[in-house]
Specification:
Length: 254
């Protein structure tokens, strides 16, 4: 009995499926529509390919085996990342050092989301150097200030805003990151929408989620906390979450 094809499906999703089958809230054979109705919308092809042809008991057995196998392997422990004053006994890693190492170690792609990039040249320079040296592709999801009044062409306003971001925060020239913003932020008035996340996924293998903006203050002076995970399962999930906004047309590309 094999769980092949489930490697990219998160543990939480598999646990939720197993619970649903055991409680009778989800019935086999599993189909895309049944999974969506159950509230699962990611990795549908992999789930149906691995489980769709089986009865409920077999699905439960496959899921239980996959989850048991995952428990056998220790996932790397998350590391605490910190900006600010520390006691002599502190063991947290430094935000600026961690971010620089992530950028310098990138070899394929970087997906980054951030709210503020004031004075970001020194923060982003290692990423530009990795893009030059290794052909790394970078995608940035950034916050755009909502217009004070309705624009005749909201998308044109969004592109101007993203062009201004590139001019202010990316003074290095080619290669450039792909820039995206939330389409909802291009319309004035409530309900206001801000892109307030601060996170990085590198090569689908490493992920960094932090309270720190991509600014010199956020990296060096404020008190900020974050977590670094050397976890391909989580990193690829974080990456897909952002890139799915592109495929769904929910963000505007500059």
């Amino acid at each position: 009995m094999s769980g092949g094809g489930l490697a990219e499906v998160s543990t939480s999703t598999l646990e939720r499926l197993l619970d649903g089958l055991e409680r009778g809230r989800l019935n086999a054979p599993l189909s895309r529509s049944a999974l969506v109705a159950f509230g699962i919308r990611e990795q549908l092809d992999a789930l149906v390919a691995a489980l769709g042809g089986h009865a409920s008991a077999a699905c439960r057995s496959i899921l239980a085996c996959v989850l048991a196998e995952r428990e056998r392997f220790e996932r790397p422990a998350p590391e605490l990342v910190w900006t600010g004053p520390e006691s002599e006994r502190a063991t947290a890693r430094d935000t600026a050092v961690v971010l620089r190492a992530l950028f310098e170690g990138a070899r394929e792609r970087v997906v980054l989301a951030g709210y503020s990039f004031a004075n970001a040249e020194s923060v982003l320079r290692p990423l530009h150097e990795a893009m030059q040296a290794h052909g790394v592709e970078a995608s940035f999801f950034v916050d755009v200030t909502q217009p004070e009044r309705r624009e005749p062409d909201p998308e044109a306003y969004g592109r101007r805003s993203l062009a201004a971001f590139m001019e202010e925060s990316w003074p290095f020239g080619n290669p450039h990151p792909k820039l995206y913003c939330d389409r909802r932020a291009l319309v004035p008035g409530p309900p206001w929408a801000s892109l307030h996340a601060k996170c990085v996924a590198v090569d689908g293998r490493r992920a960094f989620v932090s309270s720190a903006n991509f600014t010199t203050r956020g990296q060096d002076r404020n008190i900020e906390t974050g977590v670094l995970l050397e976890d391909p399962l989580f990193a690829s999930q974080l990456e897909r979450q952002w890139l799915s906004l592109v495929s769904a047309g929910l963000v505007l590309r500059g």
